[in-house]
Amino acid sequence: MEEIKQGEGRFFIGDQTNPDAEIVFDQSRNTYTITHTVVSEKLKNQGVGSQLVKRVVELARKEDKQIDPGCSFAQRKFEANPSYQDGWKGK
């Protein structure tokens, strides 16, 4: 898998202006709200989306923030992964 890079309010793979995969999150004082996750056709079915969600979880834990998995993909990943429950806002 290609390197996951961090930008302002997002993690991405590929070119910053036209990424092959990306997860976008809004930052508030205590919460990261995941608003969008997209993976290009060439990277689909390789676990890239899951790795992007994991990176947001790791960042939130490091910065002692909660996560609101606002997009449907992130919501499904949080529901399926018990280890994410500690950072899930509202759970």
Automatic annotation (TrEMBL):
Record domain N-acetyltransferase: where: 3-89
Coiled-coil stretches: none
PROSITE patterns: GNAT_YJDJ (PS51729)
InterPro entries associated with the record: Acyl_CoA_acyltransferase, Gcn5-rel_NAT, GNAT_YJDJ
Cited PANTHER family: BSR4717 PROTEIN (PTHR31435:SF10), PROTEIN NATD1 (PTHR31435)
UniProt-recorded name of the protein: N-acetyltransferase domain-containing protein
Organism for this UniProt entry: Thalassobacillus cyri
Lineage start: Bacteria, Bacillati, Bacillota, Bacilli, Bacillales
